[in-house]
Amino acid sequence: MSTPARPVALVLEKIMSASPDEFHRSIAVLDASRSPALSHRLACGAGFVTITYAALPSVRLGTLLELPRAKITLTFEKATEQERAQFMPRFDLAFRRGGG
Question: What pTM does this model have?
């Protein structure tokens, strides 16, 4: 009799255009009860995901536009592959920016 495989911790890093305020607003979309912080631990199925913001140097496009940049790290703990796959569309939607 074999024991079920325990989910392995998974770390994803994304480089995004996001200021700390934009990060806080996006986290609030995922969980409105969250107060502003640079790291949040949220439920993800039977496990958790920790989402962390780290500022990077901004990027300048031409002479008129400067965009903030950040490394957003998602650390999944005890969440199955299916639970992570269900969480990521919610994350992507919460962190989506308008544009055109």
Answer: 0.85
Strands of 10-16's sheet in order across: 10-16, 65-77, 47-61, 39-44
- Residue 83 tokens read as 């639970």
The whole-angstrom separation of Cα 52 and Cα 50 is 6
pLDDT value at residue 100: 43
51: pLDDT strictly greater than 80: yes
**Contact, 42 vs 31, CB < 8 A?**
yes
Q: What residues does 6 pair with on adjacent strands?
A: none
- Going by pLDDT thresholds of 50, 70 and 90, the confidence category of residue 36 is confident
